């Protein structure tokens, strides 16, 4: 009954007061409907007018794509795949015969809103000259955009392989390769290339099958320091040095001769030839990877450089022979401390070491000198190798050397 009465009340006509209440209710409901539609429309407009936020790729991911293209550019010698400022890399790769090139992202160094710089592990080989790869770390700068691009390689504070840092001049023969920065890419490069061929020929007169030789010429002594990750000024007074491009001392690593142009370019032709042949001997004999007495390592290299070069002993050992005339005969063989480039008068002891090896060659024959060197290189104790190959000990060698010096100084 009550339910029917409630329904009846809902169906009767309202009086004046009831009508006002009803109109207010309708207005409130209408306003709510309009507000709801407005909010819905706003939501739809916001949804249509903006894209969902997307997470930007990490520097490692962006760099990996750019490095893949960089590898392709080097392999294909295709400068169109490189930033215009780096087109020289493709040309250098072609001229040098770069093979087995790879570039792998290692770590981020710094960033700006539009760029980031990272350390990249690079490996490569000079086809036909290097038996194994050079592996080094190089800073590369990447610029963001529709496609991330490598726009710079290296900086002034770190070591960067010459062929990745600037355009080069290149000269090659069947077994020599010489590369130089642009300022030495003319007559200087031609001359040094000829001397490099001659250096390997002279080495071949003493050592069978000398192999191949690579010579690199940076723009200055300071650039040489950076190239070899050396202390500033370390090679300021050195004309040339045999070293691995990546600083590795693992046997079998590539070894090149690096020229200090500030010194080398000031030498006369004969002196420069001796220097190149000396360093070429270190390369051929793998001197970087073995423990040798300094007098044998440096004296042997000088012996090879002078033996068939037509340089008189009085010229090649002028400073040391003068010292003997003034101060008398030496009482011992040159020590490692004597041959330290930081030691006063070290160049004089290089001459002395040459004359020790000259004594061995003249007294026992050139092949015996080579055999003695190889025995010590293979790990034999120097005294034991001396006895087994030459039949004397160090005291006996010192006596023979002093006798030869007496004859030389008259």
What are the main properties of this structure?
410 residues, alpha+beta, Nuclear Transport Factor 2, Chain: A, Zincin-like, 16 helices, 50% helix, elongated, disordered N terminus
Overview of the structural elements:
- The protein has 16 helices and 9 strands.
- With 410 residues, the protein is α+β, with helices and mostly antiparallel strands.
- It has 3 domains: 59-160, Nuclear Transport Factor 2, Chain: A (Roll); 167-288, Zincin-like (2-Layer Sandwich); 290-410, no CATH class.
- A 5-stranded mixed beta sheet has the order 5-6-7-9-8, with helices on both faces.
- Helix 6 links the parallel strand 6 (176-181) and strand 7.
- Helix 13 (346-364) packs across helix 14 (366-377).
- The relative contact order is 0.06.
Q: How would the blueprint of this fold be written?
A:
Layout: H1 2-11, H2 16-49, H3 59-76, H4 88-96, E1 98-111, E2 115-126, E3 134-143, E4 149-153, H5 162-165, E5 168-172, E6 176-181, H6 187-206, E7 213-217, H7 221-227, E8 240-243, E9 256-259, H8 261-264, H9 269-285, H10 294-307, H11 313-316, H12 318-327, H13 346-364, H14 366-377, H15 382-390, H16 394-409
Parallel strand pairs: 6-7, 7-9
Antiparallel strand pairs: 1-2, 2-3, 3-4, 5-6, 8-9
């Amino acid at each position: 009954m009550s339910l029917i009465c409630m329904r009846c009340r809902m169906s009767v006509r309202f009086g004046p007061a009831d009508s006002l209440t009803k109109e207010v209710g309708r207005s409130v409901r209408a306003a709510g409907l309009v507000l709801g539609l407005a909010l819905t429309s706003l939501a739809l407009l916001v949804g249509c007018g903006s894209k969902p936020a997307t997470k930007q790729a990490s520097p490692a991911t962006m760099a990996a794509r750019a490095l893949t293209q960089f590898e392709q550019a080097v392999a294909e010698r295709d400068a169109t795949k490189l930033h215009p400022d780096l087109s020289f890399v493709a040309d250098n790769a072609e001229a040098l015969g770069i093979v087995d090139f790879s570039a792998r992202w290692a770590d981020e160094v710094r960033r700006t809103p539009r760029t980031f710089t990272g350390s990249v592990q690079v490996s490569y080989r000079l086809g036909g000259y290097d038996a194994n790869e050079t592996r080094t770390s190089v800073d590369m700068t990447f610029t963001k955009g529709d496609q991330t691009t490598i726009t710079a390689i290296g900086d002034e504070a770190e070591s960067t392989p010459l062929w990745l840092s600037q355009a080069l001049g290149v000269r090659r023969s069947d077994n020599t390769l010489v590369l130089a920065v642009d300022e030495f890419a003319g007559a200087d490069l031609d001359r040094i290339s000829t001397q490099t061929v001659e250096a390997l020929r002279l080495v071949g007169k003493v050592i069978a099958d000398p192999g191949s030789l690579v010579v690199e010429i940076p723009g200055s002594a300071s650039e040489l320091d950076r190239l070899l990750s050396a202390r500033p000024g370390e090679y300021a007074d050195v004309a040339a040095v045999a070293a691995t491009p990546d600083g590795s001392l693992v046997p079998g690593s590539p070894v090149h001769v690096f020229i200090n142009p500030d010194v080398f370019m000031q030498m006369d032709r004969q002196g420069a030839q001796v220097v190149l042949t000396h360093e070429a001997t270190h390369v051929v004999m793998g001197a970087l990877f073995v423990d040798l007495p300094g007098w044998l390592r440096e004296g042997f290299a000088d012996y090879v450089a002078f033996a068939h070069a037509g340089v008189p002993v009085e010229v090649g050992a002028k400073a040391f022979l003068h010292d003997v005339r003034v101060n008398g005969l030496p009482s011992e063989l040159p020590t490692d401390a004597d041959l330290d480039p930081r030691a006063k008068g070290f160049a004089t002891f290089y001459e002395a070491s040459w004359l020790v090896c000259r004594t061995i060659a003249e007294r026992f024959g050139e092949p015996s000198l080579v055999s003695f060197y190889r025995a010590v290189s293979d790990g034999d104790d120097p005294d034991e190798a001396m006895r087994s190959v030459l039949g004397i000990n160090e005291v006996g060698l010192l006596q023979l050397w002093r006798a030869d010096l007496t004859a030389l100084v008259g």
